[in-house]
Design a protein that fits this description.
The protein has 388 residues and is α+β, with helices and mostly antiparallel strands. 49% of the residues lie in helices and 14% in strands. It contains twelve helices and ten strands. It has a four-stranded mixed sheet. The radius of gyration is 22 Å and the shape is globular. Bound molecules: flavin-adenine dinucleotide.
């Protein structure tokens, strides 16, 4: 469609085409057997698919080879995430777990013992984690909003407080949770520290699911005198804010890549449908109103992809990339929403039907303008840099 190969090497084009075939031949047929709002495939199907990705050398693509992954570099992983998200569950559960589940925080900040205990089992699909920052007092500004506290005692760290909107909490074996470790007043920036809390630890519990716009309901986490040892600290005391900032800044780039992937798929669906659907004696594709929707989507999507790839390249070159990351997340999440919205419009009633993935992508994408930092916060970060 766009005559531009984005400077991708032959190797990366091969990766794209391998993942594309896998999604089309292995994931989509399995998804079609499930409810349109399903959030996972049956366990035995996931295990079988994982065997396949292992034999292709594609299992846990972004994990280092020493931990059993495929060792993809950052840019290649962004391309991978774009491609692997092109299916119904793709924005919530990219690849349906066939390529493994996310492993990030412990990989970047864990001690060797923590990597042995948590990272390796995660890579091997024997454990899963979840990531808890947001509290009822707010998520956009965690340095001030975090009120959950860990107090040092003779026996270890005693955690008290609540987290909210936490995805994957039901299936997690452990939580990486960000808490205050100072005694200062609430509402001002405090000392933030991260702990790994196993979900069987006394004093830890989760609420009933909290139904939201997308099928997967997040949970509230409750910590009541939950005691963890010093060995469960991830990174150093007071290093939690820098850790969450660096993790989120880099996660947002492949996250933006996922939005680009789904938008691409929606645009292609809209193009195909506009050629076959006739109204008033002509295919939709011959109506200027429809042609302009397609053109606007193609232009916005091309621009968003360039911004995402640029951010991934800057990160891969180890240059400062925080502004690039904010631009990528902001632009890709908003553009994808527009592109999917136009694709729904062109499909008419069919665009809203659960038979197609468009309505689900629309709902999933709506959460993406709030999750991983609301659009307004990214605009604030970008304008702060412009005005500094
Ligand atoms: C489905 C779902 C899954 C989630 N999963 C997780 C998870 O796994 N782990 C986790 O820790 N959190 C998770 N979250 C929480 C999410 O990260 C937060 O909702 C998000 O960070 C925003 O925080 P908030 O909801 O408290 O909004 P607030 O911080 O209260 O902000 C409300 C609104 O105010 C506006 N705003 C905020 N700051 C500014 C500003 N400076 N300038 C202008 N406008 C501003 C924005 O429009 C924002 O949407 C999830 C949320 C949802 C809905």
């Amino acid at each position: 469609m766009v005559r531009h190969d984005y400077g991708l090497s032959d190797e990366l084009k091969m990766l794209q085409s391998t993942v594309r075939k896998f999604i089309k031949n292995e994931i989509i047929p399995e998804e079609q057997k499930e409810d349109p709002d399903a959030i996972e495939l049956p366990e035995e199907v996931v295990s079988r698919l994982q065997e396949k990705t292992r034999s292709m050398g594609m299992y846990q693509p972004s994990a280092p080879e020493e931990y059993g992954g495929a060792g993809l570099d950052f840019f290649s992983n962004t391309i991978f995430m774009e491609e692997v998200s092109k299916h119904r569950q793709g924005l919530y559960n990219a690849g349906c777990g066939a390529f493994g589940h996310p492993i990030n925080p412990i990989l970047y900040a864990g001690t060797e013992a923590q990597k042995e205990k948590y990272l390796k089992p995660c890579v091997q699909a024997a454990m899963r984690g979840c990531f808890a920052i947001t509290e009822p007092s707010g998520g956009s500004d965690p340095a001030r909003a975090i009120r959950t506290r860990a107090k040092k005692t003779d026996k270890g760290w005693l955690i008290n407080g609540n987290k909210i909107w936490i995805s994957h909490a039901k299936v997690a074996d452990f939580v990486t949770v960000f808490v205050r470790t100072d005694d200062g007043p609430i509402g001002i920036r405090g000392e933030i520290t991260c702990f790994i809390v196993e979900t069987g630890t006394p004093g830890y519990s989760i609420s009933n699911p909290i139904p939201v716009i997308r099928p997967e309901a997040p949970y509230e986490l409750i910590f009541e005198d939950c005691l963890v040892s010093e060995e469960q600290m991830l990174g150093k005391r007071g290093g939690g804010f820098d850790l969450l900032k660096s993790l989120l800044t880099q996660n947002r780039i492949p996250y933006a890549g996922q939005c680009v992937g789904v938008a691409q798929e929606s645009l292609e669906m809209a193009i195909e449908y506009s050629k076959i659907r006739e109204t008033f004696g002509k295919p939709l594709a011959q109506r200027q109103a429809v042609q302009w929707m397609l053109a606007d989507s193609a232009v916005e999507l091309h621009a968003a992809r360039l911004v995402v790839y640029n951010a991934a390249r800057v990160r891969a070159e180890n240059k400062p990339f925080d502004i690039e990351s904010s631009m990528a997340k902001l632009m890709a999440s908003e553009v994808a929403m527009n592109v999917v919205d136009r694709a729904i419009q062109i499909h008419g009633g069919m665009g809203l039907a659960k038979e197609l993935p468009l309505e689900r992508w629309y709902r999933e994408l709506r959460t993406r303008r709030i999750g991983e930092g609301p659009s307004e916060v990214h605009r604030m970060v970008i304008s702060r840099e412009l005005l500094s």
